[in-house]
Please model this.
Amino acid sequence: MQWKRISFLSLTVILLLNLFPFTVFGAEATAESSATGAATIRLYGKDRTATSIAASQQGWTTSETVILNELNNYADAIAATPLAVGLDAPVLLTYGAHLDPRVKEELKRLEAKKVILLGGNGRLSTYLEKELTELNYQWERIGGQDRYETSTLIAAKVPSDTMILVNGDDFPDALSAASYAGSQQIPILLMSNPEFPQSVSDYYQQHRPSQVIVVGGDGVVPDQLLEEQNIPVSQRLGGQDRYESAAKLYEYAQTQNVYDAKQLYLASGQHYPDAMVGTVLAAKNNSALLITKSYTLPESIAPIFSPDKLAAMEVFILGGTGVVSGKIQAELEGKDFIKNLLIGKTVVVDPGHGSPDPGAIGPGGSKEKDNNLAIARYLAVELEAAGAKVVLTRNDDNSPAYAPGTPYTQRGDLQKRVDIANENNADLFISIHNDSWQTAQGTTTFYSSENPSGSPSYKLAQYIQSGLTQEIGTKNLGVKDSRLYVLRNNTMPAVLVEVAFISHPTEEKQLSDNAFREKAAQGISQGVQAYIRYLERV
Model:
């Protein structure tokens, strides 16, 4: 195939929508409440480590003990919330291989003497232990063979006649439970479905708590599994979805006068790291941590923020506007909100490949299909926060054309993706991929001049390429014309983004890293919004 190389000036994308004058990076930021609105404080940083430090600086002047968690491992930190509250210790997120320099500085500021490491050596390395020793910190490791055993080891340090049981394979119910568990000093045990962890069953048989509270519906913590383990349920707090489960837990806690009614923490129920670091801060202040959709307060959560309650309320928002939108913040403050750029737009996000097609495989064994789906999910959150309706062509491991007993063809797979875009009357189509060619490096965005919307596709590709490469710092390989099926057979503006080369060892590691995936999604989203701004000018 003959590629046509197109050069263009890099565009600096400065997006000011959703930013409020009282919101600043990594620090307290209080907005004056209106007669009917709450005062809001947004805590966030440029990445999850910075957000954890912002939470630490909000809640602690000094702390003798600090808990360290690997920045991509949510489960251990959630289970550790009651222990952290009991020790009055913030949770900081760091790299697994070594201490983040910013974490070192925060340990100094806190005048810490002891550090607790969560998880085994596969989470936080022995080199990190050496660093702590050289810096004259005492350290202790709490880590089992897996997250479930680690939760039992943590639970053993939080004596209680009650235990809370949540699903440890997905985290929204655990997030909702954490602030309650922390404030009441009740251990959180993580279970799996359908294989119930033996370590958790052993913990129950050994401790025999008089009360077992299950957070989540039967679909995530099945009664049948608990009956098989002879674990009686005293109280189940579960709804039709994660938000209703959170609301039920909040109502249950309110009957016990657990929470300070004048203070709440709000975090994304789709994007967990920011919420994770806030659980300890919320519990320390006897406050509830509630979860929300990125752009809209869920129906089950919204009544908690009724106008008659908001005027006397202070709300801490965990994370930037990409995870909890400025629209929600304005609503809480009782203010009008300037519409986001993507309201009324439908964007189809297409994670390339999917079983039985893994896509390219990197030298370390990682699979393109997994990277594509992870980036696409982050991108969906970003675009929804900007007001778009987002449709994913697949939301699990399988190709959208996969059906048991039906032969799989690549052509059928590609056509199904085009069909999804047409069925949803998409305004934009964005396909996510990883490139693969020997040891090449960099990022490319493709469009097709054969698409009836070829010219807008080219312009969209330009903006996405610029926003993405500026955000993730990869080599800019430019925008290229292509006859790729999903580009030339769609009718709306369509692009295919090769985020980086899975065939290159360094870029393969980046593509497998959640922090990199999230930044890639932010860069693509910035490009999309810059494109919409361009359309408004022409």
